[in-house]
Amino acid sequence: MSLAKRNDGKGCYECRMRRVRCDKTEPECFKCQKKGIKCSGQGIECRFSKHMNRKQTPSLGSPQLPATSSKASKSYLFVNVENTHDGALPTSSGQPGASTTGPSISTFIASKMVVLDFNENGYRQIVLPIACQDDLVAQAVSVIAAFHLSSRMPSMHMAAERGQELILSRLRQQSLNLGPGQLFNMSTLATLLVLLVGDTITGANNYVYLLELLSRLAKLAMNDPRLSDTTKAFIMEQTKMFQLFGFPLSSQMKGIQTFTKSPDYYLDFMTSSPSLGSDPEQYANIQVMKDIIRQACYIYRNRASHEATRESSIEAVERLRQTVTHLDPNVEGRHALVWAFFVASAESILPEHRDFFYNRLKGLFECTRFGSIPLALQTLDYIWSKQDSTNWIEIVTHERQILIM
């Protein structure tokens, strides 16, 4: 599949195929309406091959949700084409009930948003089925897949940015127009999760706004009788994960508030895989990873509260380094340690500590290929150039707001 920028001078796809001049009315042009043709509107075209697998119904047990209105202003048009690039994107045709699920999301990105991948991964079993029914979620899924693939296909990046801006605009408009009792719907929540994943891929700072909205919606979701216990558990696990790694990097005050709770409050996402109960070695590795994250939380909290001294800082970083050495650098689930390694690197004073965690963080990029990691490495160089005069938390919360995870 390819994500192509629309030639704005030629109007909608349907008029171009009929070789007539489009009047470019939004959301559907008058010429298509007059002919009784479903108009795809103006915006970005996402093309996929007819040979890709298309499911006509969502997975059994997936949340049943109302699809967004077909009259909504469209930012994407999905068109079957014979020839497509490698690395198909997951898309929706824009019509409820149609879907195309590509390997970029289902196989790779979904596996990196949980610690240990498993069949019931909520991004595959909950989010992608919603994308099959809901245009807004489908657009968000297409955008982050395009961002992820843009490292190999740079032409996708500009179109993905434009699509993301349109989705963010719709979300902001929804939050302004809906009353408190109307605010929650699963489509919006799924879209927020997908866009937050996108920020880890791009290193953008939209997460500062998105995480606040997700936190509010997640609370409302817990009281929604339409949602299954499995869906609620997935929502809370992912929300707490983003809160743990996102709030401390968006605001020092929010970081301090986050750590008024024990780190374990946020760590349910570490143990969501059913395989842990039958694999003692895997279970032991996860316990070590949880300890690494806990120690990084304490390092952040002590720095944010101005309790850290040079001696206590060096001691805490060394203790964390010793814990990390108990793990194989290629252990399954290691991508969960991006935030912890960044915090330890930023706090490091001794050159050997900086080198150790910098290289571990660099190695994780080979695992995820998420763009926030190279930006994190650049931020570390900047922090170390200013550490004698500036608290590193002030830098990441004011100058370099990146969702590093």
UniProtKB/TrEMBL annotation:
Origin: domain of life: Eukaryota
Alphabetized UniProt keyword annotations: Nucleus
GO cellular component: nucleus
Keyword Nucleus: yes
Biological source species: Metarhizium brunneum
Gene Ontology biological process terms from the UniProt entry: positive regulation of transcription by RNA polymerase II
Domain Zn(2)-C6 fungal-type residue range list: 11-40
Protein name, as recorded: Zn(2)-C6 fungal-type domain-containing protein
InterPro entries: Fun_TF, Zn2-C6_fun-type_DNA-bd_sf, Zn2Cys6_DnaBD
Gene3D superfamilies: Zn(2)-C6 fungal-type DNA-binding domain
Xref: CDD domains: GAL4
Compartment(s): Nucleus
Single GO molecular function: DNA-binding transcription factor activity, RNA polymerase II-specific
A Pfam match: Fungal_trans_2
